[in-house]
Structure formats: C-alpha cells, structure tokens
Amino acid sequence: MQRDIAIVAQAQVMTDSLDIPRERMLFDLVKGLFDKVGITRHDIDGFVLNSNDFEVGHTIANVFEDTPCGAYMKDETHVEADGMWAAQYTTMRLLSGNYDTALVVGNSSGASTFRPYLVMDYQLNPTYDRQLGILNELSTAALQARAYMAKYGAEEDDFNEIAARLLRNAALNPYAVRSKADATAGDVLASDYLYEPLRQLACYPFTDGACAMILASGKRAKELTDKPVWIKGMGNSVDTYYVGERDLATSKSARMAGERAYKLAGISNPAKQIDVAEVSAKFAYQEPIISEALGLFKEGSAGKVASKGLADLGGSMPVCPSGGGLGAYVFTANGLVRVAECVRQLKGEAGEAQVSGAKTALAHSQDGFCAQHNGVMVLSTEEG
Amino acid sequence: MRNVGIIGVGYTPVFVSKRKDVNIPEMISEAVDAAFRNTKLTPDDIDAITFGNMQTFEGVNMPHLWAADHMRALDKPYMRIATGGTTGMSTLHSAYYHVASGLHDVVMAITWEKQSEGDSQVGLSGIVMPEAMVMVQHGMDLFGGKGMGAMGGGSTGAAAYQAMSYLHHSGADPEHIDKMAALERSNAALNPYAHLRKKTTVADIQATPFVSWPLRFGHTCPTSDGATVAIVASEEMVEKLADSVAWINGVGCATSDPATVNFIEGQITDPAEQEPARMASSKAYAMAGIKDPSKEIDMAEMYNGFAHQSLMWLEKLGLCKEGEAHKMLDAGALNIDGELPTNASGGVFSTNAIGASAMNRPTECALQIMRKIEGGHQIPKKIKNAVSHGWGGMFQYVTVTVLGDEPRHGQG
Amino acid sequence: MSAQQERIVATAVVPLDFTYNYRVGQYVERYIKGLGQKKIMGVKCPGDASVIVPPRKYCGRCNEIMNEWVEVGPEGTIENFTIAHVNLNKGVVEKADTEYIVALVKLDGATSLLPAKVLGVSPVDVEVGMRVKAVFKDPVEDSLEDLSHFEPAG
C-alpha cells in the first residue's frame, strides 16, 4: 500500500436494551474515545459514519449522528452497509494522502428500535422473493447450513459445539450481551428449532450498540499511541444475490475477499501466519464456511476443528475469542466490532480472552443473505 | 497524490416521472450499459464498483445486493454510499478514493433513484423523525399548515425559509427566482437527459401557484426515475483506455447540523447560511490549485432542488460576491453562452432522480470539458475548470468536485 | 447502561407499512403471464447456457443479457430443504401451527434452484433427491401466487 495506515484506538458499547437516546450513546462513546486518546474532534480531518436508514428509523441515517460524533462543521461522509466497508473506505481516504487522522463510527439499535429479521426482509427482491414469503433471514440460513452438512457430512452437533464455544468466549468479553461461561453443545441442543438445523442459541442475539475507531497515517499514529495497529491488507468481493445460484456450502466471495487482503499483506499461508481471527458469523454454522473460505482451516473440517478444539482460545487458530456474532451482533457496526476486537487482541488488551503473543489478526465481515458480500482486513503489530 | 479522471459517463435513455416498463435493477443496468458503450470498456476492465441511492425512497434495504448481477459487480469489490441529496457525488468521491488510494485503477460509480416506486415526500419527511412517519401512517397532512410542512418536513416547507433568508441577504427580488427558473427550464429543453424539457418563459413560471412564499410550484424540482454512471481511472489507465478525460482535480465535503430542527427549536442556524459550502469548496479549490474561483472557474453545476438555490450557491461557493449572483443573471452571464454558464444541464430543478442528482452535476461538467454533450446545450467556450456541487441531508451536507481539462501538477 | 432518568420519546418501530409500487419489469411480467397458463418460464444465458428461474435480464457470471425463453418443469427435484418450526411475521418469530417444508427445487430443464413450499409430504419423509411437481392455483389469478406450491410427483 502506498502509505502506512494504523488504527490508533477503538471503543465499543453494546446492550440488549438501550435506555438512553441513540445520539447520547454516540456522544458518550466518541467523546470517551477522544478523551482516552487525548485529542479533540478538531484533531480529526475526516469523519466516516456508518448506519442504515432502515435500522435507524429515518431517512438519511447520519443526519442526527454527525453532531454527537463531533462532525459538526467537519468533513464527513457515510457508508450505508456493514461497517467493514466504512473501515475500508476510511483507510482508502487516508491512503490517498488527503487525510492524516480519521474517525469511523458505526451504530444501530436492533434490540430496541427495529426488528433485524424485518430489516432483512426489506433486502429481499421486492418483485419476487419478498412477495412469496418463503425466504427470510432464518430460512435462507437454514438452507445454507443444510448445504454444508450435505456437502461435507457435517452433523448438527458440530454446529452446536461451535455455538457453545462462542457462548463461552462471550463470557470473557465485557461487551457481549449474551454469554454462558459453561455452555455445552447440549445447551444448544436443548434450545428450540427455528428452521432446521438452526436452533435459537446458535443465532445472533438482537443488540443495540456502536463502535468507533480512530485511524491515522503512520507518523500521526505514532504520535497518538504507543501501540498502533497497522492495516496490512484489505479486500472485499460480492457474489450473486440469488441463493438458488450459489454453492451455499462454500463462500466464493469470502475466499476472494481473503485473497485480495492476503495479497496486499504478503500472506501466503493464512493458517500459519494469522494468530487470531474475528470472523463475522450471524449463525454458528457460518463460522466454518467462512473460515474455511479464508484458508484458516481445511474445507469441510468443522467436525474436526470442533473435536480437537483448534478454534478454541488455546487452539492452533483461535477464532472469535470475543464470542463473535453469538455474543453480540450490532447490525451494520458489526464489521467495525470485528476489527475493534482484533485491535484489542493486538494491543494486548483482551483480558482473559487474550491470545498470547498475537501479532497478526484477521477481521472479516459480511452483508446480505447467506453472506453474499464479504470483506476482510489483515492487521498487525508490525509496521511496514 | 494520484491523479484521477472521469473517462466516461452513462445515463438511462430518459429521466421521467415513472419508468413503468422496467424494475429497479433493469433500469440501472441501462445506465451501466451506456457507460460501457460510451467508453468501449467491458466489465472485465472494472476493478471495483461504488453504488449510491436513498433506500427509503424505494423501500429496498441495501439494493446494491439485489442488483449485483445487473451492475456487473460479481466477484468485484463493491461499496454502498448514502448521504442524502449528496449521495451521487459522495458515491463519485468514493470511486475517486478507490483510485487515489492506489488500491484500484478503474472504478465505476453507479447512482440512481426510482422515485415512482415509493412516495418521495414520505421518504423526505422521514428524515425529520420517526414520529413524522407515524403521522403519515395515521393520515396526517404533511404538507399543509397543520402538519409537518409547517415544521419543515417534506422539503418545500424548509426551502421556503431558506429562499426568504437568501432574498433578504442578497437583495434579489422574487422575480429573480422566476428568471433563473425560466433560464434553467429552457436549458433543460436542450438536454435529452433532462426530465422537464419545455422552453419556458418568466411569464410561464409566474403563472404557477405559490407553494409556500416566496416559492412557486414553478420553482420546484420534479421527482424522476433514472440512473447515472461514471467511470473513473488513474492517470496511467487514462492513457491506456480513454480517448477523452475530465480530471477530478479537487474534492471536498462538509457537514453542519440538521438546520430545520434548530430552526424549529428557535436556535440560531439560518438555512441559507450554508457554511459547509464555503468549507467544502475551499478544500476542493485548494486541492485543484484554484486561487480565485470567480476568475478561474469557467462553468458551474449547482445542486438546486429549488430555483433560488442556483443563485445562492454561486455566492456560497465564491463564484461571485454575496449579493451579486442575481446581477450576473440580469447581465446574461449565467446563460449557456455567458461568462459563467450555470446549470446548462437544467439542473436538479429540471431532473431529480435524487440518488443521481449530485452525480449529474460532475458528469455534466465532465461531458462539457470533453465536449461530448449530446443535445443543444454544449457550452461554446473552452472549459478549463468547472465546479460541481451537491447538497443534501437536512440542509447540512455539501459536496464539491472541481474538474479540469488538465490533471493537477505538483500540488500535494 | 446508566442514566435511567433519561426518557425515551420515540417508540415507533420502523420501517412502517408504506405502500410501494414495485414495477416487476418485463422479465417477471412474462413469467407471471406464463404462470397464468400453468407454465413455468425461464431464460437461458447465451454465455454458459444456464437456465434461470425466475427469469431476469442479466447473468452476472457471464455479463450477458438473457433473452432466450424456455419452458421448464413442471416437475423437478428437491436439492435442499429446511423444516420450518416458525413463521416470521413482519420480523417477529411466531411458532408455526404445523411444521412445514421450505425447499430449493431444481426444475427439469433449469440450472438455478427455485425456493418453494412443498406440501403433501410429511417433514419426516422429505429428502434431497425427491421428485416433486408444481401445483397451480385453479383458477389462476394472473399473479405470482398462481404457482402455489410443490407436491410429490407421481
């Protein structure tokens, strides 16, 4: 990349019932971040906001977010998609040389002001799928889970094991809104079926929240923090919308997004070179599909990964030490949260969930039904 | 910094009230096809795609995902931008930064709206607050004296306050708004991609009823269905791929706060103040090496949902002194063959597919610079520098793009 | 979260039910017309010869306009399915009265999979590879719902 760019600091807030206005949540989060870094909003050259009209409940979602985020009378733009794209756009703006310090902020309130499954219904092709009433967030996810099971002979229990690990990890994450320190596959098995094989405990919890990060060019980043987290590579790729035309058992777009990021980051063997991964999975079954597409595990290996604990905190390739999407899933901001969790790991601030010696991390995020659109960023403690 | 240029533009064949014959992705694909046709490029030449519209107007959440096949986006990096009225130009700026970052070389920016699929005044009123949407649902009148219109919902209500303030501060008369409206509608009559295409006189405008003093129906924009696509490229790829180019030499954007809310609450913001216009344009001019825009800019495309705004923005963007725009209008300087042709396209005021409206400003400038204007509104003089402008949100977003016939040299 | 004293004034759940007028376009229009004659029409891609149902203008994989119309079905094979225990009603999960099957069906002559409800077979008996046939409304109504569901063939 033509310039070194680093993440200076991150801040997150999450809850399952927001009891203050969203704008107040944003103000507290962003002001807190500025205070932590020791700067004011006037030190920021460019603001990138990240939210969605359907989730926020009014047209032009960022209209009332600018002021609480400190963007009043500032350079500001808005990405209306998962936060991964906001983080990547912020990085591009810094890479151009036109900015030196930037703030990216994503938020939504899926626990208290909108229904996540309804917002997904509004993503359906309105001339066909939305009229049929068959496809929705849960039925498409169930079909994808079945596709993986059919192709690789995976069992429901493999997914239940993944869900249990994520719920246990979530218990170590102060931001998670759902967790269970002693969760087992049996707990997941005991929760109700929605669409087979999806069980309630294997689905994301509705979450209110926000995530903010300060990014800066290399020199500026080193002035602002002792531990800059360097952005080494990024990429994204989109697949067809039509779930009936994709091989749902694998993710071509996640693979391509990963390849693009790895090429920039000089990564040839992701399973070896990446120390920790934050994969965006809305449902437990999605984790193996995506992490396999990203080259972290062999194709179709969900059962083996689960039984050998390879993705566990102490495993060879820890995935989602934060608990991932099963601990909290802030719509839209989720991609930023995955990046922020990597930042916590690389700064050594992950507490009990710390992967010891983590130097290189991968953040992934997704949009659309069955993860139609995937994005990846590779982060490192090492400059250059 | 890398130089980036617009190497081609594609419009839907028409911008009209209702495209009943096509669905959303089919309509947008017509502009994508036109961009490929006009540049002789194919989807394989495109490294990444940016996409923008205002999704509540059609009630489709993140429509870029549904439309991916029709956008020729499969297996490509793809980014959705939305910033209200400025969406079109913000989407172009995103494409610009895809290239300026050094990560990509040829990027397509897709912008559109199909306003006939929903009710755009509901979409706009929805900006104000969720309660406004509840009011709509309960059948309350948004536009009359009793409803949100009085509070600045919809957009005519709030724009009337702005027009009053502008007239007061500039010394212009309401008749200047009529005159600007007639000029732009007559320009639009020459533009095959304009929506309202009728040669119009001041008397025609003055025969339309008042909506909210001082704005008449004849001062307001239509709602349109249409799409606009621009392809941008790095300097190296311009040399390889393009037979003509308009360089993006300066970009800027800025936000204030949601003006009408403060207006309602009795705070100080004046909807005609528009400080972000000064901020965004100063940044764009500095990047483009333009020291005195009133001397160096050869044409202007202003975002004007309402006819008074063309005049107001010329002043806010430093193209003339405060209070002088209407004098330039009287002197004929804003005509297509004048000193500072303004909205030769007919402006947003004549064509308003909202997500594309702030894109049509820089694409008009680019085609004028490349001398590829279809129809009768090609500006006769040579264009070295052009300024285009977008405006949106709740009166608070401004985007500016400065285009030139030569790339920037030596600046930062 | 702290600050319990702050009052929330906006409790609207959005989006609300606005009426939108989605033009289906010429492809879905012709598909619906076909259903009215109890025929399922797809389009063939000139690039990779895939046959897509429901039809649309572009094949994104080949960047080709699809304009060769072919009749497919009415029989097909279940390629994938899920058993629904719930309904989603405007985003709210409600327990279904009876479990039902949502399948991806490969119609004879098509390459894409069509999402469809399958009736007339118990959820415990459904399997991948099962042959099914389209059931149309009688009389047809010139709408997407004319293709009512699928049921076991033969």
Query: Helices and strands of chain C, in N-to-C order?
Result: HEEEEEEEEEE
Structural category of chain C: mainly beta
Query: So, CATH architecture of the domain at 5-113 and 206-224 in chain A?
Result: 3-Layer(aba) Sandwich
**Biggest interface, residues from each chain:** A-B, 65 and 68 residues
Q: Can you summarize the main beta sheet of chain C?
A: 5 strands, antiparallel
In words, what does this structure look like?
The complex is a heterotrimer of chains A (384), B (412) and C (154). In chain A, 35% of the residues lie in helices and 18% in strands. With 384 residues, chain A is an alpha/beta fold. Chain A has a domain at 5-113 and 206-224: Peroxisomal Thiolase, Chain A, domain 1 (3-Layer(aba) Sandwich). In chain A, strands 3-2-4-5-1-6-9-8-7 form a 9-stranded mixed β-sheet. In chain A, α2 links the parallel β2 and β3 (76-79). The longest helix of chain A is centred in the N-terminal third of the chain and has 16 residues, at 22-37. The relative contact order of chain A is 0.19. The mean pLDDT of chain A is 96. In chain B, α3 (87-100) packs across α17 (354-370) and α4 packs across α5 (130-137). In chain B, a hairpin with a 2-residue loop joins β5 (210-212) and β6. The model of chain B is unreliable at 133-154 and 261-268 (pLDDT under 50). Chain B has a domain at 4-114 and 226-401: Peroxisomal Thiolase, Chain A, domain 1. The longest helix of chain B has 17 residues, at 354-370. Chain C has one domain (25-152). Chain C has one helix spanning 25-36; strands spanning 40-44, 51-52, 58-59, 64-65, 68-72, 75-89, 92-107, 114-118, 131-136, 147-152. The longest helix of chain C is centred in the N-terminal third of the chain and has 12 residues, at 25-36. Chain C starts with 24 loop residues before the first helix and ends with a strand.
Fold blueprint:
The complex is a heterotrimer of chains A (384), B (412) and C (154).
Chain A: E1 5-15, H1 22-37, E2 46-50, H2 53-56, E3 76-79, H3 83-95, E4 101-109, H4 116-121, H5 129-132, H6 137-152, H7 156-170, H8 185-189, E5 208-217, H9 218-224, E6 229-238, H10 252-265, H11 270-273, E7 276-278, H12 286-293, H13 302-308, H14 324-327, H15 334-346, E8 360-367, E9 373-380
Parallel strand pairs in A: 2-3, 2-4, 7-8
Antiparallel strand pairs in A: 1-5, 1-6, 4-5, 6-9, 8-9
Helix pairs in contact in A: 3-15, 7-13
Chain B: E1 4-11, H1 24-39, E2 48-52, H2 63-66, E3 78-81, H3 87-100, E4 106-114, H4 120-128, H5 130-137, H6 148-151, H7 156-170, H8 174-188, H9 202-206, E5 210-212, E6 215-216, E7 225-234, H10 235-241, E8 246-255, H11 259-264, H12 275-288, H13 293-296, E9 299-301, H14 308-316, H15 325-330, H16 347-350, H17 354-370, E10 385-392, E11 397-404
Chain C: H1 25-36, E1 40-44, E2 51-52, E3 58-59, E4 64-65, E5 68-72, E6 75-89, E7 92-107, E8 114-118, E9 131-136, E10 147-152
